[in-house]
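ESCALATION

Customer reports they have been waiting on this structure for their group meeting. Please prioritize. Original submission:
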Amino acid sequence: MAEYYQLKQDLLIWTLAMSGVIFFLVWLNYSFHIALSYLLGAGVGVVYLRMLAKNVERLGEGKTRVSSNRLALFAGLIIVATQWQQLHIVPIFLGFLTYKAAIIAYTFQTTFSEFMKR
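Update from on-call: job pushed to the front of the queue and completed.
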């Protein structure tokens, strides 16, 4: 379980770091409102990732299925984005997907670090 906890922490750090960098890049290249929409999506993505990690952790305790309650979080985010005029849907959606980009970046980093050790 120690490896799992380290992986969970590493993915959270990668996600937060990428979210911060991308937030400032979006702010510089577009507008502050679009950057805030991105940050809202990234924040919900972090919450989603934490919920997913807790569900996976419970699998080790004898639970046989992963819950799908996280989907309601994403659906609520998109519903709020469509109803509130100041929010932009595409930056929110892309912000939400930042956790997936962090997983890919972490995978590349660990793969290439193992490859370079050989």
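Sent to customer with the following note: The chain is about 85% helix and 0% strand.
Escalation resolved.
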